[in-house]
Specification:
The chain is built from one helix and four strands, in the order ββββα. The mean pLDDT is about 90. The protein has one domain. The strands form two sheets. It has a two-stranded antiparallel sheet with strand order 1-2. It is of the alpha+beta class and about 70 residues long. The chain starts with 12 loop residues before the first strand and ends with a helix. A hairpin with a 2-residue loop joins β3 and β4.
Length: about 70
């Protein structure tokens, strides 16, 4: 299962983990290591052209679909 939302195409993004330690030896440059920000995904059943299919969506899209279904 790929880590991509099938509706909005939200995917994994890389960034830095910055350790801010307040001591004399760390005063000028905080150490940085690479990390990944992964989307919060959920598999749901969605009707596409009247046919139920399984889709992997992020929670933001899931909440929007759930809200639209209630209305």
């Amino acid at each position: 299962m790929s880590k991509v939302c099938e509706i909005c195409a939200k995917n994994t993004v890389s960034g830095n983990r910055i350790q801010h330690k307040h001591s004399v030896g760390w005063r000028y440059k905080a150490p940085k290591t690479k990390r990944q920000f992964k989307p919060n995904l959920r598999s749901i059943d969605v009707e596409v052209d009247g046919v139920p299919t399984r889709a992997t969506v992020c929670m933001k899209c899931y909440k929007r679909l759930k809200k639209d279904a209630e209305e």
